[in-house]
Design goal:
With 159 residues, the protein is of the alpha+beta class. The chain is 42% helix and 16% strand.
């Protein structure tokens, strides 16, 4: 099983190496250290304007039959980013069809399947970071509206 795991990961890594010629590809593979694989996301999004270091640990994960053991985004556990608080949940309920960030991601075993790839995980990470940044904009817009206008203005709906 471990041999298949490594072969599958190596084959997926090749797609990133081949895409180096494609400057429009937002994902770059950096290196492997032990069971950790390092990627850079260069998002092409107005909501994310910095490079993001993503570390994916496949140690004992039974990949591709299960999601990776751990994903770190700039050293922060991805599962912590998927934890909703009251503010995030209100935003999700009001502006998206997502009921739970964690349950809607590939890290949830119910959503994972062997045809999912590293690229799918990186796409999802960009989506989750965008949602979390939108939540911050929502909170700031709501606070500014209440503080400076004192009454409802539809600013929040336009961001």
């Amino acid at each position: 099983m471990h041999g298949y795991n490594t072969r599958r990961i190596d084959n997926e890594i090749k797609t990133f190496l081949l895409s180096d010629d494609n400057e429009d590809d937002p994902y770059r593979y950096l290196e492997k250290i032990n069971t950790n694989y390092y990627f850079i996301i260069q998002p092409q999004s107005i909501y994310i304007n910095n490079e993001i270091l993503v570390t994916i640990n496949f140690d004992n994960s039974n990949y591709p039959f299960r999601p990776p053991k751990q994903i770190l985004i700039r050293g922060i556990d991805y599962m912590k980013l998927l934890t909703s608080n009251n503010i995030i949940q209100k935003f999700l309920d009001k502006f998206t069809t997502i009921t739970c960030l964690c349950c809607s991601t590939l890290m949830c075993r119910n959503n994972w399947s062997p045809h999912k790839k590293i690229r799918d995980l990186l796409d999802e990470i960009v989506k989750i970071i965008s949602i979390r940044k939108r939540v911050v904009e929502y909170v700031f817009a709501k606070n500014i509206t209440e503080k400076y206008f004192g009454f409802y203005l539809p600013i929040i709906e336009f961001i």
